Amino acid sequence: MLPKQRQDEIVRALRADGAGGVKVLAARLGVSEATIRRDLEQLHDEGRLTRVYGGALAVDGGDEPFADVNAVHAAEKDRIARRAAELVQDGESVLLDIGTTALRVAQHLHGRSLTVVTSNLAVLEELQYDESIELIVLGGFVRRSYRSLVGYLTEESLRQIHVDWLFLGTSGVRPDGRVMDSTMIEVPVKRAMIQAADRVVLLADATKFPGHGVARVCEPGELHTVITEPAADEATRAQLTEAGAQVVLA
């Protein structure tokens, strides 16, 4: 990977997660920590991020465009999504979170006799013409860049429903198993989704271990299942299992 490509990927990661540590970025990009430190210093000087002790912060709270996020780790997300879709039985109800992995779950639900509830506008676009699926769209404030609905109306809508499955995304999973998110406006919606579901399934590729996030979404004991990759941190996976979550490797 050329330095320019690597630096663009660093900025993209920070926009998606809000923050990034040197060790996490080095592992994600397959380069040394010294290389990442040099990149962070250069990007800081260019005004593309804010350098902090141990890593960097995104320069603003803006969302990474949905299409850009969707293209990152696409194969890994698709394996996780396919495994998630296999958990659902015909006739059941599914709540799909905001985010690109949830969109991929929707792509694997086509032709199934299901009820799908979502605040994800990309999921709406994916499933709107599939007559086998009863599709329910939650209300709310439109976040155009991330193709989603959030806010009080979304949360209030969630209080009126109950579903069999929630497929939940995350910015990161802490070593103790806590699920975090870096987009503050999404956190109340995610918490309301958890309350509306019988079974909560976390979808998180290996880069989310530990990942980042400034706000707690839920404790590991609130998760029914975690679908991730074999490369995900073993110690964190053990914490999740100890808390009662079934860890499935895709």
TrEMBL record:
Repressor of the lactose catabolism operon. Galactose-6-phosphate is the inducer. It comes from the Bacteria. This is Lactose phosphotransferase system repressor. SUPFAM superfamilies: NagB/RpiA/CoA transferase-like, Winged helix' DNA-binding domain. Residues 3-58 form the HTH deoR-type domain. GO terms for molecular function: DNA binding. SMART domains: DeoRC, HTH_DEOR. InterPro entries: Carb_Metab_HTH_regulators, DeoR-like_C, DeoR_HTH, NagB/RpiA_transferase-like, Tscrpt_reg_HTH_DeoR_CS, WH-like_DNA-bd_sf, WH_DNA-bd_sf. It holds the Pfam family HTH_DeoR. Keywords: DNA-binding, Repressor, Transcription, Transcription regulation.
